[in-house]
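*** Backbone structure tokens ***
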Amino acid sequence: QVQMVESGGGLVQAGGSLRLSCTASGLAFNYYHMGWFRQAPGKEREGVSCIMWSGGSTYYADSVKGRFTISRDNAKNTLYLQMNSLKPEDTAMYYCAAGCDGRFADRYVSYWGQGTQVTVSS
């Protein structure tokens, strides 16, 4: 049974930082390109970042480039998202995804985490 558990979300002031983690079990983590998506209330889900299985290539949505950094530790089956200079518009539920591409197409996602809430106050 595949499980992906996110953590690290919370309430932070604008300009602050958070680090999200996603620990996966029940899948061959190191064979998956892994990603982060987010969904704000009343908005469609959007891709945030994607990292290839080896960690050699990363992709970011324009809205987070230069502020967010995706990384992974294949030995720990864990995906990370370091979020700096947070803005109120970053407020959303953040989801870990197993399977992604640089265009953040949903059809490449095989598994989703349950989500972790990030709220940025102004």
In short: The chain has no helices and eleven strands. The CA atoms of residues 88 and 95 lie 18 Å apart. The two ends are 40 Å apart (CA to CA).
